[in-house]
Specification:
InterPro entries: AB_hydrolase_fold, DNA-binding_regulatory, Hydrolase_4. By secondary structure, the chain is of the alpha/beta class. It is built from twelve helices and eight strands. Helix content is about 45%, strand content about 15%. Helix 10 links the parallel strand 7 and strand 8.
């Protein structure tokens, strides 16, 4: 009898894990699910865990809306991906210099307006793509960088096909930061990628989802981890993707591009130690780390804009490809 009870309990526990994994997939990774965080975002129901809460001034918002030009490409798996292009906003544009600014989880190109405007005034031609399953881009499943890194390669290829002399900066926030690091660490990346700015990247997609699920449901991570595993198995079947391919910490050990890592030490979404761990693991001979006191998730710019831009601008000016 005891064995039967134990077996029944094990089956119930397994069923609970599977159910939790299905729920996680639908809530966090399936943009078409009516109960997902993406549906809540479309209804403007935000909470503290939305990366999209990036303050954008009215002047910057008007600049973004008045100057953007629509661009459409195809992903490697034939999804229609949409983005915006901005011409240099200065009398002295930087020839052949481009910046690709990548938004975070549940966000969109509009939240990158402060970065796009700054780089445009520096003389860059700027692209702000919508990642797959976000805003105007097609796709159903979000893969936390696993497939998004391949989409970034298509945006780079678009630029290089039009300008073989292109010198490209990749800037990403949160999931976008993870994606640009993964793209830059790809051994087949275009040599035109000359620098990366990573703001608030996580170290590993599976660990980040485990942390977020445990935090949201107030359960131990040991209970959340199997559910993330189930969600990953389903993601493999439904989207031909694996969260294991979004191991950012492993990727930066192969990253040789000059990289600036940024994070706030009050980040409540991504572990505040993440930027330092990525910085210390990075294989590049030219890395910098900026930790902004008191800043939350993707809030370093809003917390101390002078420190933020002086660090970013100084980093870029040291790189011959972007030296004025």
């Amino acid at each position: 009898m005891a064995a039967g009870v134990a077996s029944a309990c094990a089956l119930a526990a397994a069923a609970g894990v599977v159910g939790a994994g299905v729920g996680l997939l639908r809530a966090a990774l399936d943009a078409d699910c009516p109960q997902s965080i993406f549906a809540r975002r479309r209804l403007n129901h935000f909470d503290d865990h939305d990366d999209a809460n990036v303050p954008v001034s009215e002047q910057t918002r008007r600049w973004f809306e008045d100057t953007h030009q629509s661009v459409v490409i195809r992903s490697y798996d034939r999804l229609r991906l949409h983005g915006w292009r901005f011409d240099p906003d200065t009398a002295r544009p930087m020839p052949h210099c481009y910046a690709i600014c990548v938004h975070g989880y549940t966000g969109g190109p509009g939240e990158m307006a402060p970065w796009a405007q700054h780089y445009a005034t520096m003389g860059f031609t700027v692209f702000t793509p919508a990642m797959r399953a976000h805003e105007r881009s097609a796709g159903r499943y979000v893969t936390m960088g696993a497939l998004e890194r391949r989409d970034l390669k298509q945006w780079v290829n678009l630029i290089v096909s039009r300008d073989p002399q292109a010198r490209i900066l990749l800037h990403g926030n949160s999931m976008g930061a993870a994606s640009v690091l993964l793209a830059g660490a790809d051994p087949c990346h275009a040599p035109n990628i000359r620098a990366i700015v990573s703001d608030s990247a996580f170290v590993c997609a599976t660990a980040q989802l485990t942390h977020s699920m445990a935090d949201a449901l107030h359960v131990p991570r040991a209970l959340a981890r199997p559910a993330v595993g189930v969600a990953n198995l389903l993601l493999g079947r439904l989207a031909d993707a694996s969260l294991a391919d979004a191991d950012v910490l492993g990727a930066v050990r192969r990253l040789t591009i000059p990289t600036l890592f940024v994070q706030g030490d009050a980040d409540a979404i991504v572990d505040p130690s993440s930027a330092r761990r990525l910085y210390e693991a990075c294989a590049s001979n030219d890395c910098e780390l900026l930790v902004v006191p008191g800043a939350g998730h993707v809030a370093s710019l809003a917390t101390d804009p002078r420190l933020y831009w002086s660090t970013v601008d100084g980093f870029l000016r040291r790189i011959p490809a972007f030296a004025a």
